Sequence to fold (765 residues):
Amino acid sequence: MTTTSEPIDTKPALTSLRRKDLLGIADLSPEEIALVLDTAEAMKEVGSRPIKKVPALRGKTVVNLFFEPSTRTRTSFEIAEKRLSADTLSVAIGTSSVVKGETLADTALNLEAMSPDMIVLRHSSSGACHLLSRICRSAIVNAGDGTNEHPTQALLDALTIRERKGRLQGLKVAIVGDLLHSRVLRSNIHLLTKMGAHVWVCGPPTLIPAEMKQFGVRVTSYVDEAVADADVVMLLRIQLERMEGAYFPSLREYFQVFGMTEARLRLARPDVMIMHPGPMNRGVEIASEVADGPYSVILDQVANGVAVRMAVLYLLAGGAEHEEAA
Amino acid sequence: MKKLLKGGRVVDPVNAIDGAFDILIVDGLIGRVGRDLPVDGATVIEVPAGLVLCPGLIDMHVHLREPGQEHKETVATGTASAVAGGFTAVACMPNTSPVNDSATVTGLILAKAAAANLARVYPIGAVSKGQKGELLADIAELKAAGCVAITDDGHPTATALLLRRALEYAGMFGIPVVEHCEDPTLKGDGVAHEGYHASRLGLRGIPGACESLGVERGVLLAELTGSAFHVAHMSARGSMRAVRKAKEAGIRVTCEVAPHHFTLTDEALGAPVPYDTNTKMNPPLRETADRDAMIQGIADGTVDVIATDHAPHHYDEKKVEFDRAPFGIVGLETAVPLTFDRLVHAGHISLRRMIELLSVNPARVLKLPGGTLSEGAAADITVLAPDLPVRIEAAKLRSRSKNTPFDGWELRGGVAATIVGGRMVFANEQLFAYVEAGL
Fold:
């Protein structure tokens, strides 16, 4: 079923993520990443059945704790949890209500007192999941923490690339946009470099984090150089409020210098894939013709999100080992 | 009343003393330092072999938090922490609530210090009223009440003009302006040193240039005004370069470095505990080249003072998301072990230089009476144990707050005893087990 070209390991095959939490791709080995992707392929099949449900997480309670607005990621996690038959509860807490009183640690401990098995956390502070991981017995799944990581996004991106290209190893992946404020970028860099892809990152110098070269990637502000012969072009959202921080003069100028147009895309390989983690700003980081064009896999990414999240939840709960024991 | 400290090595850099001497204390003052002094009715305190007696250590950068933030620290708990760390005197910062911008607040701190009767406390007053950066505080009043310097620490002095005025005005009273050097626009909402580790962890960065700009501003204004300018808690290599050049040019600038800035780097942000809020301080832990520049500056004499920037915070305040946690760590009880282990035993500085950095020079910068064992000086003496194995245990710190990144660290070198005004206010029980209370 799997079609990876990753080197074959002589160690016994992994059947679960032998870790309590998924805090970031930084912690995962290439074998663990491959396991999630392989499992996600199997989970995808569940979504094509008339009855889209398996009993893998029956009797498990999963709390989705979202401190930031999110439509795509929260919906995707909720669907994944329901397809695995988990009992789920989503708590959306505006950051403002936290400012009024309770600390994150207290919120988590109160939830914990009700004995959930997993907490899926989205939070505006980098490291919020690490904090919870230290105080909670429940498994913590990072659904995006500040500008640190968004591991399930990188996993679904990898699944999407692997489906199309059959591999990750050796591909040139160009990531273009606001590098400084992107947790998607950090997770993708960890994942793609661990799996042997050649990663180029590109953005205005004002939106490139310090010492980016030490991440094992090529860094440029010349978008043509980044896109040249790329197998994959991944665009990152430009947040409109960045203009006020004087990171660049105008959205119009951003589009002129960095916007992904059909003309620019001709520099890439003919079978280039266009990816975007959403939500898109058409006419800012991406031209509509590109977003809607034949190379775009943006909706495949969304579809794969459910499968990848099912895989992550299933494997953290113990995977096949858990099912045998049950 | 006479006491005689017998045995041990006495190091008193100001009087060029280094050797086996006895110290006679008469009525809380140094009576004599000499070889084999006669007992002559004095109470004898035998100093175990291998220990070093030096002028009392002075920490010129401490936040005692009183008045207003007594849940973090009080004058009593802070001075208990000081003497346990070997400090016979501390200078405390004015960013209390209310701010120490008046004789009333200064008087309150001094009254609390007298009641605690542990380390000497020298308040530092605010540069501006309420530390608001608008009007000068009543500096003559502060000086008369006992303040030894002025600063808006916690933040830089708001404008170059106000800093200029503060330097000119404080110069009249012969007290220095202590500056938290930082360009607030460059700091923005940064929480960690701008470098590889902050980038990897997704933490907003504060570049070294943010501090160095503040240092350059202060140096230029010190030159303009001819007044004494002291750079607090220096951390960036660009700042060290600026101070070195200013000193070569004869500008009246001095500077201090905190133990965490000569010990740790920004690597501590991610390991052993990722996003440990006890690695969050301002200025932040910087990269290796900066840390090494701090050690170099300490070794070559550019740095005048080691000061802790002791910044206690309640554990509730630190048990939050990294970007929401307050800046700062406690430092009084870890400074001596870190200085011994990381600087003296590592071969960067001599024991004599350590005593200059921790006693002689802070006394000079703030024009305090300590820093020597001269006859007639107050008998403020720190007894150091250079080879004592020390294990830092956060839970056992005397400070009301336990926010240290050094919990569990094992270091060589510590404090054997602390004597203030001839009274032993702290003693390591293993080394001075037989010392009677009240000696």
